[in-house]
Structure formats: structure tokens, C-alpha cells
Amino acid sequence: MARFAGLLTLSLSFSILSTALPAGTHLQTPTDFSTFNVEQWVPSLDYVPHKQQATSLTSSMAKSNKDIEPFLFQFKTKLPVPGTRLLMFLRETSRAMVATKEEAVEVRLRIVPASSAGASNGPNRASHSMGTTGNLQSFIVGDALNPPTLKASANLPSDHIIYGKDPSLGGTINFYIGFKNVIIDSTSVAASKSITLLDWTVSQATQLTNVVFNMPTYSNHVGVTSQYDSNSNIILNNLTFNGGAIGMELSGQQWILKGITTNGANVGIKAGAFQIVCLDCNLSNGATGIDASGISGSLTVIDSSGTSLGNMIVSSNAGGSAPNSIILENVQCTNSGSTVSLNNNAVLSGSVTNTWVHGNMYSGGATTPAYEQGSQVTTPRANVLLGANSKYFTMAPPTYSQYSSDQFVNTKTVSGLPVMGDGATDDTANINAILAQYAGCKIIYFPAGTYIVTGTIFVPAGSIIVGDAYASAISATGSNFWNPDAPTAVVKVGNAGDVGVAQFTDMLFTVADVLQGCKLPLATWDSGTRISVSVVQQARKYKPTAMALPTSAKPPGACSI
């Protein structure tokens, strides 16, 4: 896993970044599982869970590459926790990744080896010998206070700046990939050149959030595409597209697009999928806001707006069947042509204050749908679900960059309550003690590591917990989780009747054994629950380095410790 933060608070020149895949090559080679030894990872049918406690775990412990010490990036990161440093197990070839504020560097030859590095006692990540769910891909995380710019040079020879997808795996088995807090810039590339800034043909357990795509206006550039293979994305959060021919060119199974802003793109979103939901999206200054012609199921647009557009939504006429159904709920359309145009015929103009449906609709208790060619209906909204302006409450994935360093507590540096996160030590009691002590007062940070627990971790109301992009794992083991007739939670959030904040960001909840009676975990961002055979990674201990952020903010319900 590669992570880039404060060192990238400058403009970087990418002349050949995407040449990891030859220009024009989009066909993907299916994974050959015929040589994958499943038996070494999957327990036999008569397997009995370890009768000893966590200290007797037999999982092989991954170690950092023996030829280097983990390289310390000089982070000015979102998690300014005194006493911590991020552990990056990079090969010697990746050490040169630092860029100073005084220089702009060509970084393709530095980032690519870093994202391929594996453990010294394990395979290179590019070998895929760990299968799909066992292989952690790359996470690029920028400084949330001052996002880095990845800028394509004018002579970029390829048709993409960044391939988010691993080209040797199919799109539906590209997991554990992340990209956030970064600006991608193609404004130095000729407007006439056809180029895509980011290929995002990936699937579950991926995150794309808080990214800005800057493209020349009236250009052939595309911000994000997923055109080169089947894929199964879930959600894209808080992305901004300036200029370009198309902001987002999507195909796949299902998408939730939340907090998307397009400004000056000829087509804001070219949507192709089974189902797409746009929530709190704002599209402006273009010919078309959303081209829904490629949707085989339905497009639902909620609490969104279109401003200064030729047409807000264009599509084909479904002609009496479900494909290309369109549902609009609380959609504002101003200074534009039609709100919905089907086959170049305007069928709706102006704003929709409640709900408008074109397509199949069940109503009045009917068991079969009726085809509607533009019906206004009322959709009740529960007050408890609403935020500002009577919209459904939404929240951007938090970066916590507004909080100063003294508002964080590092679980590995609390005096008298040692927490190891080494994949072997039972950390249950001390994690629970730290959570009880700092709930409502501090943001609790779990550095990269595997935290073995043999009992339930109780998260009190008022807790904010953050980790390092799928590298901070709460991993359960032991007899407390064996009984399928009386399942036990690994993580329990609050008690019945509790009221307060509960947030998880960048955490992984998993198991270190076969646990028939295990239940895995209120608000979670970029976090995952995984039940599979896990190779526990051992983190070495290194001397800590402090990091700082502004001191003006305190977390909700802050108190003195």
C-alpha cells in the first residue's frame, strides 16, 4: 500500500505516469485461478478453532522488506497524532519518492514501484498469488489541508494520466483501492487530445473521494471513466470536475454519486449502468447535465440542481418498459433548457419540488407496475432524515483536518495502557479502556496494524475512530466468538437509548480464525468488514515523529482530559 500525504503539497509533473499500461491497451487479461492453491488458505471441514488464546496464532506474520527501514514521509497529514509515524514497507527502489517544496518532479518511476512493493517474506503484489481479496492494492491519500496536484505534462504520450484499475485483474475483482484528497490536472495537455484523467474500472472496497479534476474548457478531456471492463462500484463521494468534454463517463452495475459538482463540462455525467442514484449533485455551465441514454434500469436524481445547461437530463424514450426510467425528487433547474429531454423532445421544464416519474411505477397497492410518462407524485420525508433546506441529511467523508493535533489520541501511545497492534498480542482490555476514557473528548486514532481482540470492543456514544486506509484492522479470535447459537459482536456501538456521535473512518473489521458465533459492526466511511483467511501483518516498532495541524477546532462534545 502506498500513501502520499504532506510531501505532495506541490505541483508534480507526470510525463509518463500511465505507461504502466501501454497507450491504447484496454483489454484485460482474466485472472488464472487454476494455479491458485486454495487449500493453503481455506481450513478443512473438520477444522477446530484454536483452543489457545491470541498468543498462539499460527498465521504467518508479514514483515517489512529487510533491505530497508520503512521510509518516513514528512507528513502534514489529516491525522496529526503526536508520537506516531506511518509504517511504509517500501523497497529500496521506492525510497526516492520524496519531493521537496522547491522542486517539481517526474514521479511515475517513483510511485509505480512503491505501489508494487510487497513484504519481504511474501510475494510481490503484482504476482497476485494472494488471490483477489487477500491482496491489498494501492491507496493514494493527499494532504486534506493542502491537496497535492498531479499534473500531466504537455507531452504526455498516453491516453490516461492514472489507471486506478490493476490491468492484470478484471474490473469486478479489483478491490481495496483508494484515491482521495488529490487534484488531477490536464490543463497543460492540448485541448484537442483525447485523454482521460482517471480510469476507475474497479469494484467493492474501493474509495474515490475529495478529488478535483481540472481540464481545459472546450476540450476532448474526460475526468473519470470506467469503460474498459465490467465493474461493480458502490459510491463516489464529493468529486469536482472543471472543464472537459465529459466529467464522468460511467458504465457498470450500480452507482451512487453523492456530492458531485461539474462546472464547464460539455456533458457533466454520461451515465451507463443498471441503476444510478445522484444525491446532492450540482451540474452547471454545459450542454448536458446527465446523459442517461446508456442506463438499462433507472436514473434517480435527489436533492440536486442544474444551472445554465442546454438540457439537464437527456435520454431515450423507454416506450412502455422499465429501461431508461427516470425519477426526480426535489430537483432545481434554473437558467437552462429542458429539465428532461427524451429523443430530443422536451418532456419536462423547470424545477421539481416533489417527485416526477417517467417509467414503471407501483402505486395504490398495485402488485404490477403501470407505465407513467411523466407523473407528479408526493414522496413523504421523515423529519429525522432531513438536514439543511429540507434536503436529506448527507455528510462528506470526514478528513478531520479542522482539528488540531492535541485533539487526537494515538492508541499505541497511551501511558499505562499499552496497545500493540502487532497481530499477536491480545489488545482487548486496553482498547476498551482507551475508548472509555476518551469518548467525547478526543478523536481516537488506530495506526496501521492488526489489533487482536478476544472479546467485544465497546464503542461509547461520542466516539470518533480513524485508522489508516484498510491497514488498521480489528481482528477477532478466541472462544468468545465460537458459539453460532449465541453470536457475540466484535465491535458494539453504544447501548440501547444512547444518543451521540459514532464515526469510523479507514478501519477494517475482520477475524483471525473460523468464528461461527461472530457478529461484525453507526456511521462508517471507507471502512470494511471482511470474513476470509487473513495473513496477519506484523508492524515493527519505530521511533515516533510528531505532526501538527491548526489548533482552532475541537471535536463535538470536547472536554478536558
Automatic annotation (TrEMBL):
InterPro entries: Pectin_lyas_fold, Pectin_lyase_fold/virulence, QRT3-like, RHGA/B-epi-like_pectate_lyase. One of its GO terms (cellular component) is extracellular region. It is found in: Secreted. It holds the Pfam family Pect-lyase_RHGA_epim. The keyword Signal applies. The keyword Signal applies. This is Rhamnogalacturonase A/B/Epimerase-like pectate lyase domain-containing protein. It comes from Aspergillus hiratsukae.
